[in-house]
Amino acid sequence: AFIILLWFNGSITLMLKQAGIIEDFNLYSKTGLIILYTYFQIPLGVLLLYPAFDALREDWRESAALLGANGWQFWRHIGLP
To answer: Which of 5, 31, 36, 81 has the fewest Cβ atoms within 10 Å of its own Cβ atom?
Structure first.
């Protein structure tokens, strides 16, 4: 699927070339491989971390809010560690 969409004459590559966004794109270059790797690794990471985030208890968030923490502070000090 990536070869059809993103290789030298792929549909997305040709559209981006016609729009003038990119000049040359190679799927097997460093940039192309980073795009492919990221496409597969981000969903895998979400699937692996979902049970851990689901295990966070709601009373932890409520306790942090009662002590004056906003959402960013909750995730920085409680949720992510």
So the answer is: 81
The 10s digit of each residue's pLDDT in 41-60 is 999 999 998 998 888 898 99
Angle in degrees, CA 55, 58, 62, rounded to 5: 145
Query: Residue 61 CA to chain centroid, in angstroms?
Result: 24
The two counts, helices (H) then strands (E), for the chain are 5, 0
Instruction: Tell whether the model's pLDDT for residue 36 goes beyond 80.
Output: yes
- Domain count within the chain: 1
Contact between residue 74 and residue 64 where contact means Cβ atoms under 8 Å apart: yes
Range of the domain at 68: 2-79
